[in-house]
């Protein structure tokens, strides 16, 4: 084959490849940009969280969240690149046409007959019209494509601005008003609230917790609140932060007792040993409650762990079931869902699931799916609101307890057994945090409190409020409070995952032929 022919074939091939490349470049670039954006978001996800979250959540949910973040970024990027591409190509066409005009010339003589001239003129007009039409179609296509990319970007902005569900923040405006225009009597119901907490090496969470509890106090009213905190054995700046908080509360006119660097209760050498650890925690919790037990004067207790939680979420907890409850708990979430599996039991006294909607019995299952408080046997889950009377001696109580005998006898394994038959809840000695007694199935002090409220005081209205999200880790708090509660992710969880049959699951430890289940009373083995 002659070299000239080979050169012509190569030139023709390259010209056509270039034409195809230019024509499909926007679409191939768009696909490449999408893949890159998704990969970048996935890499950021893993690096930011040290890879700890990747196996922790349902993979499909994680990928859905990453896609929700990546698509608007991709849409905005492609809207910019598309506009830039159109400007560059149009400018190039303009330059090319100018160059063509400069190269064109008029012949000195044209020997054409009228028929040929007319035919060529009509042909030229037709070509011009076809070119103009195709150009208009191409411009319209670019405009539609640019508008589509821009719509995706604006949809991402809309999702960012609407991340807060009204049901999750229904008390936010009231709390903000209370902090802008503080009143000594507050903006709440006027109920006297005892706020209790204990801390140990919590310098990471305390600034946030102090800020939100301060907002809460302004809402409840500085005159309506007592704050009791115990910090012990910390080697970080927890004591300094709490001492600063103490001075702030003094300026607000809040009654309080904040003990820092407390050593009155000896901390076990090893907190890994469960029984000594529970005894120590129970003793510290009782120390926190001491001002209430000695003086009374409050009708409701908020007891918070070292968790991230918003002020309006604590108000939501107080208003659980319109205030008609004996004890209400939040939801402490981490990793793939519900964190405190040792304490929480569903309405039938059975173990809960870590995955939404958490409960394996139908009533609690449906309540959580509807974002309503779910009745449970026991709970704690980071923060509780509970009636104050069970903690008080009978002479300081406010009439919250029944004057009728117990509806069911006390279990023989309970440390208060035997109990006089005519002893009513209103006359029962104050409840305390405690560790398990001999003969009881070993449990934490947080489990035994609601158990004692049921068995000794007939206080059976205990609920978990799924709107009260809290966590011990900031990363998990952001994930469960703001991301999984976003309306788009919430739709995915409720409509696509739909529980994933979690209500059919059962957790079996050991031989499934012999299942031991304890409701806090006598141990009973069921086959």
Automatic annotation (TrEMBL):
Keywords: Glycosyltransferase, Membrane, Transferase, Transmembrane, Transmembrane helix. Pfam families: CAP59_mtransfer. GO terms for molecular function: glycosyltransferase activity. The chain crosses the membrane at residues 20-45, 65-92, 140-160. InterPro entries: Mannosyltransferase_CMT1. This is Cryptococcal mannosyltransferase 1-domain-containing protein.
């Amino acid at each position: 084959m002659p070299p000239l022919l080979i050169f012509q074939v190569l030139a023709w091939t390259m010209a056509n490849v270039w034409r195809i490349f230019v024509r499909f470049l926007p679409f191939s670039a768009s696909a490449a940009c999408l893949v890159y954006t998704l990969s970048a978001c996935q890499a950021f996800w893993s690096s930011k969280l040290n890879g700890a979250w990747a196996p922790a959540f349902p993979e499909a949910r994680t990928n859905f969240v990453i896609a929700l973040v990546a698509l608007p970024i991709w849409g905005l990027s492609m809207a910019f690149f598309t506009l830039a591409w159109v400007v560059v190509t149009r400018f190039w066409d303009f330059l090319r046409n100018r160059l063509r005009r400069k190269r064109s010339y008029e012949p000195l003589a044209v020997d054409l007959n009228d028929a040929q001239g007319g035919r060529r003129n009509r042909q030229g007009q037709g070509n011009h019209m076809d070119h103009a039409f195709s150009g208009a179609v191409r411009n319209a296509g670019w405009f539609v494509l640019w508008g589509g990319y821009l719509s995706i970007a604006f949809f991402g902005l809309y999702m960012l601005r609407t991340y807060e569900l009204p049901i999750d923040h229904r008390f936010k405006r009231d709390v903000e008003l209370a902090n802008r225009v503080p009143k000594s009597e507050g903006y709440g119901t006027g109920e006297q609230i005892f706020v209790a907490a204990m801390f140990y090496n919590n310098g990471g969470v305390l600034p946030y917790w102090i800020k939100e509890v301060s907002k809460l106090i302004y809402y409840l009213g500085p005159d309506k609140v007592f704050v009791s905190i115990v910090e012990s054995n910390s080697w970080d700046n927890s004591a300094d932060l709490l001492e600063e908080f103490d001075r702030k509360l003094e300026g607000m006119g809040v009654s309080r007792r904040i003990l820092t660097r407390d050593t009155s209760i000896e901390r076990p050498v090893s907190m890994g040993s469960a029984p000594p650890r529970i005894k120590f925690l129970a003793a510290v919790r009782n120390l926190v409650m001491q001002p209430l037990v000695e003086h009374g004067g409050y009708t409701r207790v908020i007891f918070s762990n070292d968790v991230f939680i918003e002020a309006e979420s604590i108000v939501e907890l107080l208003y659980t079931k319109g205030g008609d409850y004996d004890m209400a708990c939040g939801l402490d979430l981490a990793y793939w869902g519900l964190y405190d599996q040792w304490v929480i039991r569903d309405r039938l006294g059975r173990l809960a699931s870590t995955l939404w909607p958490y409960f394996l019995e139908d009533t609690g299952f449906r309540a959580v799916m509807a974002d309503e408080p779910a009745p449970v046997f026991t709970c704690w889950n980071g923060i509780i609101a509970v009636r104050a009377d069970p903690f008080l001696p009978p002479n300081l109580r406010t009439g919250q307890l029944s004057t009728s005998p117990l509806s069911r006898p006390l279990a023989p394994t309970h440390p208060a057994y035997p109990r006089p038959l005519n002893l009513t809840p209103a006359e029962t000695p104050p409840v305390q945090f405690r560790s398990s007694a001999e003969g009881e199935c070993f449990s934490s002090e947080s489990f035994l409190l609601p158990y004692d409220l049921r068995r000794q005081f007939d206080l059976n209205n205990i609920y978990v409020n799924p709107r009260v999200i809290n966590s011990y880790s900031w990363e998990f708090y952001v994930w469960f409070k703001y991301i999984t509660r976003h309306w788009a992710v919430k739709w995915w969880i409720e409509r696509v995952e739909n529980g994933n049959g979690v209500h059919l699951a059962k957790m079996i430890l050991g031989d499934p032929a012999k299942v031991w289940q304890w409701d806090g009373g006598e141990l009973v083995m069921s086959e």
